[in-house]
Hints:
Layout: E1 2-6, E2 15-19, E3 29-38, H1 41-48, E4 59-60, E5 64-72, E6 84-87, H2 100-103, E7 118-122, E8 126-128, H3 135-138, H4 141-154, E9 162-166, H5 170-182, E10 185-190, H6 196-202, E11 206-209, H7 216-223, E12 229-234, H8 240-246, E13 248-256, H9 269-273, E14 278-281, H10 287-299, E15 306-310, H11 313-322, E16 328-332
Parallel strand pairs: 9-10, 9-12, 10-11, 12-13, 13-14, 15-16
Antiparallel strand pairs: 1-2, 1-4, 3-5, 3-7, 3-16, 5-6, 6-8
Amino acid sequence: MKALQLTTPGSLQGIEWKETPMPAIGDYDVLVRIKATAINYRDYAFITGRYPLVKPLPVILGSDAVGIVERTGSKVTRFATGDTVISLLRQRWYGGKFDAYKASLQLGASVDGVFSEYTSFHEQSLAKAPTTLSLEEAATVPTAGLTAFRVLTQSGIQPGDSILIQGTGGVSLYALQLAKRMGFQTIVTTGKTENEEFLKQLGADKIINYKTTPDWYKQVLDLTQGRGVDLVIDVAGGTSVQQSVFATAINGQVALIGFLEDTQTSIDLVSVIRRNITLRAYTTGSREDLEQFVKFLEVNPVRPVIAGIYNDYMTAFKVFEGNKTPGKIIVTIP
């Protein structure tokens, strides 16, 4: 079979679609024929060397995939040949509280990932795909969709509360659509004027252009009569975190889920402590969380925004690198 291997971090020249051994399966394993995959920023960060790998090189990249069960081990009970399934980033996080053991097995980082024709999984490390989505759409569920769902359902905010969502990436657009389904008031930031009408169509109540309004937290305060929002979904990291804190209401929360700007940040602790603000990191979720999200999608149809569908990874990553269109980049496997 073929897979996308990273051999030399630093640039896109370090990846190659090449022959690699077919994965073996044990008694409790499932062999999946991959049909579609979604690119996440973490994949690009591994390629460029910004995010450290655990597994020695070469490594097969990718955490998000949908596929068809091709073969099962002799003791598998959760799935049958022909089932449509989606991957789980944290392969040992079946449920319960996150811990070091559950963090230890990450697709495309500490073990080979899903950017391949076939991948084997322990049966506990998969979930059935939502029937309401196409294969290409379902590929966006395990990381972008699940992260957004988990923030909105586990941060403690209630219908009618206000949230600020940064940007137009996969997590952010999922969060916007889910937030409207859940009854939250939304403010969305974007750096492109041409995205504003699109964001309104997705349900954004207010939009802030952070390019024309560099101190965007001030506009958040203006839009909320000085109160601030109950939740900020911060995907940028870096200097953005301080602005997120300034934009947050008393007893509010800043959800830290990315580092598009920088992995390092500096904040004024007084601005956090005085208003009892919580800074909390979110890292996708467990299989139980994923299955809960799939159930939600079955009765609350949300169509993930697809920026483009490609059939080769080099083209797809070049488009991703250009960052010109909102939504997820999908690669289908013939």
